[in-house]
Amino acid sequence: xxxxxxxxxxxxxxxxxxxxxxxxxxxxxxxxxxxxxxxxxxxxxxxxxxxxxxxxxxxxxxxxxxxxxxxxxxxxxxxxxxxxxxxxxxxxxxxxxxxxxxxxxxxxxxxxxxxxxxxxxxxxxxxxxxxxxxxxxxxxxxxxxxxxxxxxxxxxxxxxxxxxxxxxxxxxxxxxxxxxxxxxxxxxxxxxxxxxxxxxxxxxxxxxxxxxxxxxxxxxxxxxxxxxxxxxxxx
Length: 235
Hints:
single chain; mainly alpha; two-stranded antiparallel sheet; 63% helix; elongated; disordered N terminus
């Protein structure tokens, strides 16, 4: 029996270590020796989950998720969009329900305190013991729903990461780079440099020259006539 319990503990410990290394941590600084323990970036599991899948495209492909996600989204078919929206709705709803239950539990506990001090206004409320039991039940429900929401967020995060893995090629970065690069082959040697170059140019009008130095691209506005417009105060 003891051996069986130890095997279960070891298996769970290994699973936890695998999941832990998916989170942003001190080991992301490089393959340096001397880390006695893994220290994650954020204090909560939910925060590290969000950080892990939101930063996935940047750490794997040097793709800024905030920049590339809307562009990849436009290339997806409607069925896939609906599936992703449904997964996100489940993940968000479970978290909202958990926090709503926390607020309800706090209110129930507040009513419990008011009944203890025997405030006349709250005399119609249930007995203090019932209010205390209700608040405990609500807090427990909130905790269990929160734990379930972690798994739902993890599944949703895997879906988002898979979209970048499979559909990142839908963005034609080559045609953009050919227009602005002095030496297009400089960036085409590396896929990560392609995505960094495109986002840098489209967002900030910055490119790299043949020597690899960053420089600005002058804005090319279409020709137009400057006309003085007289404002009519009576119009």
